[in-house]
Amino acid sequence: MNASSMLVTAIRERAQRLAHSCSLFPLWPDSLRLDVRLRRALEKLNAENPDAKPLIIALLGGTGVGKSHLFNALLNQPNASQISPAIRPCTSKPKMALSQHDRPLLQSYMDLSLVDLVDARLDGVVLVDCPDIDSIDQANHEKTRQILGLADVVVFVTDPAKRANFEIHAEVKDWSERKRWYFVMTKLDQYPNDANAIREDFIKRITELGFEVDRKTSFFVNCLEPGRAEFLELRQTLLGTRSKELRALLPLDSFLGHMQYALEPSAGNYFKSQALQLKNTEVRLEARLQEAYLNALAQSDCSEALKTLLREQVWQQSPESVGYLMSLPLWLRNRLASLGVSWSIGQILTGKASILGIAGIGLSSVMSLLRGQLPYKKVAGALGIEFRTKVESIVADSKRTLEDLQIPYAEESEEELAKEPKLESKGWGLIGLGAALEAVARQVTRKQPEDEILEQLRGDIERLGQKIAREEFGFVTSFITNLLPTIAVGDILYRTLMSWIRHDYLPWNFYGMASMVFLGSLLPGYLIISRKIWSASTLPDMKELVAQVKEPGATELIRIARKRAENLAHEFELLQKQVVETRNTLASELDSPSFGERVKHSPKK
Amino acid sequence: MQENEKQSTLEPFCQGVNELLVTGEKLITSLGGQPDLLPGWKALKARFSAFQMRGKDPVLIATLYGPSGAGKSTLFKLLTGVDVPAGGAVRPCSMACAAAVPESLDDPQKLAALFPGYIAEKLVSQTQIRQTDGPDQLLFATYAEKKKQAIQLVLVDVPDFNTVEKTNWDKAEKMLERAEVVIFMVYDNAYSDDKVIQELARCCKKSASMAYMLTMTNAEAAKQIWGDLVQKVSGRFASFQENRADGKTLHQFLLESPVYFSPRSEHPSLENVYPLNESTPLLQSLLQGFDAEKIIISGLREPALQTVVSCTSFIENSELGLVGMRDRDREMRAGLLEHAKAVAFHEFPAGRLVQIVLEEARRRRPWYLRIITSGFEIPGVMFKKGQKLIDWLRGKNDDGPNLVNRDDLERKRLHEATEHMGNQWRGNYPDLSGTDGVLSSANCENARNAFTKVKIPAAGLDWETEVRKDLAQWAEENKWKCAMLATVPELAMTGGIALLMVDLCTTGGSFSVLLTNLGIAGTVGGVGAAVGVGIKFLEDYHLNTVAENAQNKWKTQRTQELLIHMDENWAAVLLQGWRLKLKTLIDAPIPKFKQICMRVQKLLHEGKVS
Ligand SMILES: Nc1nc2c(ncn2[C@@H]2O[C@H](COP(=O)(O)OP(=O)(O)O)[C@@H](O)[C@H]2O)c(=O)[nH]1
Ligand SMILES: Nc1nc2c(ncn2[C@@H]2O[C@H](COP(=O)(O)OP(=O)(O)O)[C@@H](O)[C@H]2O)c(=O)[nH]1
Ligand SMILES: [Mg+2]
Ligand SMILES: [Mg+2]
């Protein structure tokens, strides 16, 4: 694997990534076009075999500028391509001059019925006289474009009269990045007085197209007098032999050219502006959501319930955070507690208890124990109709914004679904039965998908709980709370072991005592943790709580789209930079006299 | 005498065109169109305005028109002696319009009248033409008339329409709108260029008279080229088959136009400009021999016809659009009604009905019963918990027992209804959605905000009055039952509570929370049970008809109230721009304008405009 193929691999990978990013925005014309062009460039790269293919040079220009004359004169075959003194356009099928040797090589690469073949003594070069691109014969333009697609090098032929023609320039602009170029002006002999001024004016126009022309790639010839020095020089440059090694670099350069063509700056700007628009909407909707949270949480019912939930959440997190021996009593407590929590929240929220109500709460508590769920539904109820409406509006607005911006979205976010299995497996590895129950419960609950808002609130509270747990139960807490039980266990184990070694068996009641001591040693730690949880999980300040809510579910759709758009814009920029840099490096190898000029600045289209 | 006659045939036409332009400008703009973009409009406006300002001697305007390098400026120099930049050194070399005017018109004021929309400026140096001030600039110079000419001819040289300097295209096209006579110039290699042929069609359509001139070519090649061109545009191009106001097709018009050619030469001269046909007069005599009056009128006719045609099709499109918009309006209003109904139907205040029944019954109970029961409250632990309910039913307690606020719920229902409609409309009318559409996300949000700010109107009392009337009759027919109900209001409890339950459940009261807690899917089952008890109660007291009527009255009344509320406070905000457009379309004087168009068209067809 040599350096250049490694480069190609790197760019190819990046291009594939970008193409994938594009396919997430299939309704944007810019992204669709980019996608198609990137894929085409990749296909072309895969299809081309540099060793097997002769260099294809095509003549491009308006009707009547003298392409066919030039073709004939270059080949020294006056009748190779038909010409007419008056009727335009004259050439309607491309003429392809090539040697017998190259014919089979080309056959595998293109459909030769597209062209009329002309036998010529050429070496590794194929010269094509194309129909025009500016007459009323639209079919001619199509044929020419087909040839241009296959060509490696394009000779832009023009005459003084058509040198500033809009249509022709537009065509050159369109192909400029994808090809390497020579520039030929004919018929200057018709303007003996203005020749120099016309030359200058022509060079100016070419420069406007984004090229930096030099004397070795631009030619002023009289096709009617092919014996002159400048004509011979042109023939030598175009049809002379080229180094094989360098020619092998050409497909890479062409690939980069196609990349450059695909990466229109306007598309990059469009992606950036769309990403920005999404970002603005996201910020606005998030502000709205925060306000809704604040208003809803300001109700006392709600903050009471939330406090309980949050505390419970910290409890739930505690076994993991504290770890070691302490996790055992904490886990036990959690399994037993969910019944109570459910109960107390139910009481807070339903207000006056009734027989039916109590029965309902009891039942739901049992259900939630089975499901291992905390009764968020009740909290949502307490948040109030207004809150629910506001959140629904935010979700609706993000959907509508995406529709307006022509961004498809999944009704149910895939990312959330993908997260689900991970949550299941977390933390329950210890207890097989618990995990099994959990799994069954989840199967049951999945059939009745929970309210979106609850899902979201659950996430928010969970995150906050995790955060508090992480902050509160650092190494120190873990150490302190585990110290006593560890000593106790150590002591018990030591004694037991020693007694075994000495065959001085301890009395049976030792084990009972030891268990009691062990349980007792857990107690201080448990109390410390319990105290910590009670003091730490005060809902600090509603504003703060709301500010903690990062990446809320209500704005998820728009956030996903924003991230994708930002990613698209970013990938676009990276690839663009890399392509330009690589092409510049390559340029020092592929010298312009043998392989033509390369466009320096992408022209505005 | 003859002059008078001419005047009289032109009078109705001029009047028609005037009305067409004045009414059309206003109408088309109000309908969101741009009159200047309608084919023919600009030309008609420019030529007609010049025509109305004309003095005694008619002035004919002839323009050169063609691709870059055709030799326009060179010919202009030869014909007028005015020195403008020409030649091959820089391309394009003309960047502004240059007019050569007879000495009598050497006056910016007169020229301003002659070239509406231009700012006339004296041409003093060639650099003025190389660098231009803008599309409205007209550089002029006088040309020496060799002898007293028959007509006053203004010859204009314009920039080209085919180079990379796109601003030049507009300048050339703008002059084409004004000039009556066009000399279309093209060099040999450009005659079949796509853009050149398109522009040729445009000239054939717009000009009153045209000459086709091939430069840089000899007689034989010129003949070949002309033959090829005529053949090329004969069949293949639909645009050349269109009709002019004088009845010819563009193709015919082209065939009848005089054709000239001039061979390539280092020193071009007028002597080297030859007619292709022997019968064609020399270019100079062609230009001098025009019947100016006739050509000027013909120059009005062509764009007039185009304008009439394009205006008519614009108006027809607008009318079609109006039909579509009316359909949509109907659909949207039907949607509003449907949603208002749906909300109102779910909102029947059954509890309130029980309250009214009890009130009415109590009001009617006989005096002796009143004495017996006065101050009498049925005690009992059983009812203690229901005490609040009873109080509420009796109208003593406004809060009601742990009751969800009806308004909140109605608000939520209305919110859901509007959101649903918004989405439905966005789906049905994609052209109104999108970032800039009236149904855009931002606009929907806007309307929602406005809607939430407005208080929902309280239900009117009409239905209650009706219910009370019904109850009067019921009390008449069921004296005993009425008395019963009044005496032992707790009897109503069973049924009353059931109805209240219906109320609470539909309004999402605490009962429905309980039901959800119990895992009963939805509230339908619960409501069903409650309704069962309720119906039993109503039947027992022969109150079903009363209740049924009450419900119907409520539905009709509330539907109307909610419809107006949603329409005025939500739909009107959301659809503001669109409804305004609909209103302008409805109010626009379209029939009158169509009549004007028809009148002008008739005059043109009858050949009365001459
Ligand atoms: N004076 C002059 N005439 C030329 C030159 N090259 C071509 N021509 C003329 O240009 C015309 C068009 O040539 P042709 O090759 O058919 O143009 P194509 O349409 O581009 O293929 C012919 O009449 C040629 O005689 C040149 O270098 N000098
Ligand atoms: N009008 C005309 N110009 C010719 C002819 N033969 C050569 N030319 C040259 O063609 C060029 C035409 O340029 P110009 O008048 O500026 O063309 P424009 O762009 O149409 O205004 C000048 O250099 C003329 O000298 C001819 O037969 N007629
Ligand atoms: Mg040719
Ligand atoms: Mg000019």
Quick gist of this model?
The complex is a heterodimer of chains A (about 600) and B (about 600). Chain A is mainly α and about 600 residues long.
Outline the structure in words.
- The complex is a heterodimer of chains A (605) and B (610).
- Chain A contains 23 helices and 7 strands.
- By secondary structure, chain A is mainly α.
- Residues 351-355, 369-374 and 413-450 of chain A have low confidence and may be disordered.
- Chain A has 2 domains: 48-262, P-loop containing nucleotide triphosphate hydrolases (Rossmann fold, 3-Layer(aba) Sandwich); 299-550, no CATH class.
- The longest helix of chain A has 33 residues, at 265-297.
- Chain A starts with a helix and ends in a 10-residue tail after the last helix.
- Chain B is built from 25 helices and 9 strands.
- Chain B has helices spanning 2-30, 41-52, 72-80, 108-114, 127-130, 166-178, 194-206, 219-235, 250-256, 283-288, 292-345, 350-364, 367-373, 381-384, 387-393, 406-428, 441-453, 462-477, 479-487, 491-506, 510-517, 524-540, 544-574, 576-587, 590-605; strands at residues 59-65, 97-101, 119-122, 137-142, 152-157, 181-187, 209-215, 259-262, 274-275.
- Chain B has a 9-stranded mixed β-sheet, sandwiched between helices.
- In chain B, helix 1 (2-30) crosses helix 2 (41-52), helix 1 (2-30) runs parallel beside helix 11 and helix 18 packs antiparallel against helix 23.
- Chain B starts with a helix and ends in a 5-residue tail after the last helix.
- Residues 1-5, 375-386, 397-404 and 501-530 of chain B have low confidence and may be disordered.
- Classes of the chains: A mainly alpha (605), B alpha/beta (610).
- The site of one magnesium ion has 5 residues of chain B, from helix 3.
